[in-house]
Amino acid sequence: MNARGHPAATAIRGRLNPLCHNFNHGLVGLHFSSILCMARCSSHIYLEVQQLYPQMQNLQRRIHGLVGAFFKSPHLKAQITRDMQKYVQESMANWSEDHPTYIQDVTKTIAFQVLVKALISLNPGDEMEFLKKQFQEFIAGLMSLPINIPGSTLYRSLQAKKKMVKLVKKTIQARKNTSGISNFPKDVVDVLLSDTSEQLTDDLIADNMIDMMIPGEDSVPVLMTLAIKYLSDCPAALQQLMEENMKLKRHKDQLGEPLCWSDYLSLPFTQNVITETLRMGNIIIGVMRKAMKDVEIKGYLIPKGWCVFAYFRSVHLDENHYDWPYEFNPWRWQDKDMSTCNFTPFGGGQRLCPGLDLARLEASIFLHHFVTQFRWVAEDDTIVNFPTVRMKRRMPIWVKRRGDP
């Protein structure tokens, strides 16, 4: 296998041909060589290739560890729960029965508000709206042609990022000018400022803040939207989910207690619905890795320096791993082990997404308040998988509040 330009080995599920095809295809100056069409190659790549990569650079590894520990803390989960409950209720209070509600839009707004609050403690207002507008411009350039001239999508994206960095750095500087960092950090800025490394500059912190905003635009709101889509198409699952959440609501109402984060995560069928949505939705379609030395997987050589794309969708929809893989079936998870390489919606290994627990928590809170407050009828809509997962019509539904005559 010879590579020219920028070689890449892409692991995809090959239903048409299980053999290896060697070809060069030019796209915007890049050459992609040797697509490995192997049904279960991604699973083996995930297990075997990850050991070939050196440890992440010390600084980035420390950032990942600090943020990961903060995201798992009960303190942040309690804060996220309060914020999510507030923003969900504020949003749902404005839903009308006279016109459709676009679930994809409302979940994006809610998730972005919650995430930005956790990152830099920014509350809804003019600065939040400015940041959201610039972030949407920035996101648009991530999948654009690499043409950086005034007026191009990439140019506008880079300019938007500069404005975002400026806003975040202003927040960082204001935090530094206060009396000090609390023993209980209120956001990720506090967490990173508590690190004494001189390498952790304001620019690096700002870049990390913006990188971590991406789930607020993509992963979490798409998870919530797809869950509503699949539930709308599966009345039996919706009924069981509604009964489980109604039971919890009645129990907490009788006790006179508010719901806490552990209550939401304690509902087994709700978690099964979220898990099945992650499996079918494939919100994160895969991960890119670089081979640091030659490696052979199932008879195919991946040369040192080549990029490898481990395609999660090929595993999550593989009939060898899941019966009727294209069927939404949350009951399949009642006795199924999720801690295997056959279920990787948040990645895995050293680079496992640090926000996986928060994604489940936010989805659980949204589903609870949605199904306990509303009945709905969904309009026809289609899932689009490229370049990112989304609903073609933004998932319009007609809602009716429970308890109304």
Question: Any overview of this molecule?
Answer:
By secondary structure, this protein is α+β, with helices and mostly antiparallel strands. The protein has one domain (73-282, 317-401): Orthogonal Bundle (Cytochrome p450). 49% of the residues lie in helices and 13% in strands. The chain has 14 helices and twelve strands. It has helices spanning 41-48, 58-72, 74-93, 103-120, 126-140, 153-176, 188-193, 202-217, 219-232, 235-255, 261-265, 268-281, 312-316, 356-373; strands at 8-12, 20-27, 30-37, 101-102, 286-290, 295-297, 300-302, 307-311, 374-378, 383-384, 390-391, 396-401. The chain has a five-stranded mixed beta sheet. Strands 4-12-9 form a three-stranded antiparallel beta sheet. It has a two-stranded antiparallel ribbon with strand order 6-7. α8 (202-217) packs parallel to α9 (219-232). The radius of gyration is 22 Å and the shape is globular. The termini are far apart.
